[in-house]
Design a protein that fits this description.
rRNA processing; Ribosomal RNA small subunit methyltransferase J; binds S-adenosylmethionine; seven-stranded mixed beta sheet; alpha/beta
Length: 252
């Protein structure tokens, strides 16, 4: 296990020592987990899309009625190729993959990237072993990175033929913390508020051929102050849709 943990640390360029860190990735027999060492009252965050609540949501809730799926414009004959440029724990991105879209997941935080990459790998292996419908193969975790890191868009991103970019940057928290799910709280403390998020909109609009969708808390201002073409509301959130060009239907 120690050798495997050291290899993961090297692969994901994480610090191999577990001292003096507020957050620690631990390799267990069931995979990676993220522990907040300053808050032992919090269960470690385990990202496993093959079982429990997370799997249930993918199986039963991953339908066309999900607001994120509707906001991305998934419909009969329309399965956009999507870049999820703030992938986080991959819940929204995997929902879109489950809905039949090819999805590339981009995440800049090394520990979150490692958790996500391992979780997607595990889900793909699980689906292959179970001979289940292998929709997870539609999800591709990109090397750690950010649209904001490039002065020019790298050719390999441009070559993917991205129809839509999805953005869900962390909003500075205003709700009472009890209202925020615990795994999201851990994420907030680990990655912090994405105060540079406004810069993502022009980069996303430059890359997407058809549309950019931004998830915001219901009452939050528009990203970069830019008014969207249309909006889709869910219980606590709003999906701001910036349409560049209509999709073209295929027979998928
Ligand atoms: C609110 S979370 C996204 C949650 C995700 N939609 C989900 O369903 O799990 C925001 C994530 O975006 C990442 N992020 C923020 N800005 C980014 C950027 N410019 N490039 C890449 N990742 C970014 C943060 O590190 C964080 O993990």
């Amino acid at each position: 296990m120690q050798a495997a943990a050291a290899k993961l640390a090297a692969d994901y360029q994480l610090s191999p020592t577990a001292t003096d860190h507020d957050f620690i990735l631990e390799l267990t027999r069931d995979g990676l987990q993220l522990r907040w060492s300053a808050r032992p009252d919090y269960q470690p965050l385990v990202l496993d899309y093959s079982r429990g609540r997370q799997a249930w949501r993918q199986q039963l809730g991953g339908g066309k009625q999900e607001a994120v799926v509707r906001a991305l414009g998934v419909a009969k004959g329309i399965r956009p190729r999507i870049l999820d440029a703030t992938a986080g724990l991959g819940r929204d991105g995997l929902m879109l993959a489950h809905a039949g879209c090819e999805v590339w997941l981009l995440e800049r935080h090394p520990a979150i990237h490692a958790l996500l990459d391992q979780a997607v790998l595990h889900l793909q292996q699980y689906q292959q072993a179970q001979e289940k419908v292998q929709w997870a193969l539609n999800a591709h975790v990109l090397p750690r990175g950010s649209l904001l890191e490039y002065s020019e868009m790298p050719a390999d991103l441009q070559d993917l033929g991205i129809d839509a970019v999805y953005l869900d940057p962390m909003f500075p928290e205003r709700e009472k913390s009890a209202a925020v799910k615990k795994d999201m709280q851990i994420l907030q403390h680990l990655a912090g508020a994405d105060l540079d998020a406004d810069g993502l909109l022009p980069a996303a609009l430059a890359l997407a051929k058809h549309r950019v969708v931004v998830k915001r808390p219901a009452k939050a201002p528009f990203l970069a102050g830019q008014t969207p073409s249309t909006q889709i509301a869910s219980k606590k959130h709003r999906f701001d849709v910036y349409v560049k060009a209509p999709y073209v239907k295929s027979n998928r």
